[in-house]
Structure formats: C-alpha cells, structure tokens
Amino acid sequence: MEDKIINKVTNSVLKTIDLEELYPSGERIIFDITDWLFEGLILKEKDFREQVKNHKWEQYKETYVALSCSADAIIPSWAYLLLATRLQPYAKMVVVGDLVLLETVIFQRIINDLEVSEYKDAPVIIKGCANKPIPQSAYTMLVSKLQNEAKSIMFGEACSTVPLFKKKYIVK
User: Fold this and answer.
1) Residue where one domain finishes, among candidates 91, 107, 136
2) Above 90 in pLDDT, residue 142?
3) Is the CA virtual torsion 7, 122, 135, 62 positive or negative?
4) Whose CA is closest to 130, among 1, 9, 21?
5) How far apart are CA 73 and CA 37, in angstroms?
6) How many Å apart are CA 119 and CA 129, to the nearest integer?
7) Whole-model pTM over 0.85
8) Residues 76, 122 within the same domain
C-alpha cells in the first residue's frame, strides 16, 4: 500500500496575509530641498519660488515622494505645502519626512482600505519574510485591524509561526 503525501498547510483553514503582495508599484523618492536654500541654510522666498517655478515636475509621475531637508535649517511649513501643490498632479503620494514615514503612510492607507470580513473567525497568519521595505508599523496596524475579526493571529510562515493573539469567547 502506497502512502500519499498530504500537504496539510494547503488543505487547512488557515488564511495568510502577505503585505508584500499589497506593496504598490511606483518609485519612492526623497526630494531634498537643501540645494534650493541660500548657502544650503536659508530659505529665501523669492529664490525658492523661482526654483519651484522652473523645476520639471513631470519627472515625478507615478512616484511616491518624501519631502525633506537634510540641512540643519528651519523650513517654513508653506514651503513644503508649495512643493506638494506642484507634485500633486504627478505623484501618487507626497509626505514630509523620510522613506520609512512614506512607506508607513502608504501602508496605513492600504490597511485602512483592506476588507477583512473574509478573516471572520478564521486562524490568520501574517507572513513575516519580505523582500520589499514593509515598515514594522504596517504589521501592527494590520494586527489591530484583524483582532476584531480573526479567531487567532500568528506571525511567520505556515511551517513555523509565532502565536500573537487568540480570541477568547465569552459564553453568556
């Protein structure tokens, strides 16, 4: 008699969420305004506005942009707002900060829009390994959203998970 190999993971009721599959396409860019500052330190409004006017904004089509200033300079809020108005027709998203903040905001939007009703009373695995820059905060946002639906939440791969949460059922 021949024994068949059965893939128990494939046949289980476990549901897996891989944030890497939700990672949106589009180049991530840091737009550093330091070069637009007088002596790399002072924002002169007239000169800054001239730089904004003459810049080729079309190059940011379908990108995600993080506005920043690597110099130790005080940048008025309106400067970033002005840049955002020019980027808006082209970029998918604009934030003030670094690439980690940019990815966090991207995933906040994705997770907020994520339909989780399919995970109702199901054991869920949040896939851990990723080749793309998934911010840690994305995983915490996902866990928070799933806790109201899932029977249990684990982290890792189906063959080796770390338990995170198990719903306690209250009998009335």
Assistant:
1) 91
2) yes
3) positive
4) 21
5) 9
6) 21
7) no
8) no
Structure tokens at 171: 């009998």
Q: CA-CA distance, 140 to 155, in Å (whole number)? A: 11
- Give me the pLDDT at residue 40, please: 86
What gap in Å lies between CA 101 and CA 135, rounded to an integer? Answer: 8
Angle at 164 between CA 162 and CA 165, to 5 degrees: 140
CA distance 150 to 170: 15
Domain range spanning residue 151? 8-24+115-166
Q: Is the dihedral of CA 132, 136, 138, 139 positive or negative?
A: positive
Q: How many CB atoms lie within 10 A of CB 1?
A: 2
Q: Identify the DSSP state of 3.
A: P
**Which residue's entry shows tokens 């599959």?**
21
